[in-house]
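Propose amino acids for all 276 sites.
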């Protein structure tokens, strides 16, 4: 399949390096290490998720690894993402620590978590991580269109993925277009606005019209923009419900109503204000 294409079953996106990124993942940001994280990941895998997204900064890689082993699923059936914490100075060494905590020989995707200290300094190390086989794909997170261009100009390979805050109210059209033009998969985090977007009158109206939950509508909106999505929950029922997004479609009218919720003015920036 060609890079950028979504697989025929709608469940994965083909990356520029040929690897396939599942369209739905469970994120474990702000989930404490221990039983709560282990259970969330285990429930997600039982519900059909095949992508788990963690990070060095989350402090719960060991719990993700525990849940993966307890699931009994073959390693090659689960796509694992972790992220380099740019407060440290060596992406290669930190990748090794992540692999030990996760209990795996390789992650599927390794991202620079945010462009602290500039967009390009960590990228040679990220490329080295891929060369060494510690990660199948490498990419970035929270990078603007300009920062992506800096990385592309400085490196020998482009990031395969740019994971950013992306949702109907944060519909960063120019950033999505920039990623598409550069053959970089934009991946959405916080598609539900940490729950805040669920109370939108428009979202609730569309959900009622299609007979789905507001969360399912917001996740489906991402999929219909060919954007893989990371959903976070620690509640078993919600984790299961959020996986039920491949058996319905939003109409052109539904999509237009949701598109119109954008409050970023279609920006090419990854965030309105940075924390680093």
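Proposal:
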């Amino acid at each position: 399949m060609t890079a950028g294409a979504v697989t025929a079953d709608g469940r994965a996106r083909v990356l520029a390096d040929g690897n396939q990124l599942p369209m739905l993942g469970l994120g474990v940001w702000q989930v404490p290490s221990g039983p709560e994280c282990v259970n969330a990941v285990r429930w997600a895998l039982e519900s059909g998720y095949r992508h788990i997204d963690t990070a060095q900064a989350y402090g719960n890689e060991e719990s993700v690894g525990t849940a993966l082993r307890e699931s009994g699923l073959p390693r090659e059936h689960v796509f694992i993402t972790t992220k380099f914490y740019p407060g440290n100075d060596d992406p290669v060494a930190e990748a090794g620590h992540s692999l030990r905590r996760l209990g795996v020989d390789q992650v599927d995707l390794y991202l620079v978590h945010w462009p602290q200290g500039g967009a390009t300094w960590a990228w040679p190390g990220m490329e080295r991580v891929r060369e060494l086989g510690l990660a199948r794909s490498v990419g970035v997170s929270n990078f603007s269109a300009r920062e992506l261009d800096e990385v592309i100009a400085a490196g020998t390979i482009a990031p395969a993925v740019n994971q950013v805050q992306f949702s109907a109210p944060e519909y960063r059209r120019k950033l999505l277009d920039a990623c598409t033009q550069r053959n970089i998969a934009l991946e959405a985090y916080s598609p539900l606005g940490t729950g805040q977007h669920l109370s939108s009158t428009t979202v609730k109206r569309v959900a009622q019209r299609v007979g789905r939950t507001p969360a399912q509508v917001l996740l489906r909106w991402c999929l219909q923009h060919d954007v893989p999505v990371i959903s976070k929950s620690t509640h078993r029922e919600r984790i299961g419900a959020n996986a039920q997004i491949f058996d319905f479609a939003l109409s052109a009218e539904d999509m237009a109503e949701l598109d119109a919720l954008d409050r970023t003015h279609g920006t090419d920036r990854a965030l309105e204000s940075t924390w680093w």
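The first helix runs from residue 35 to 46. DSSP finds ten helices and ten strands in the chain.
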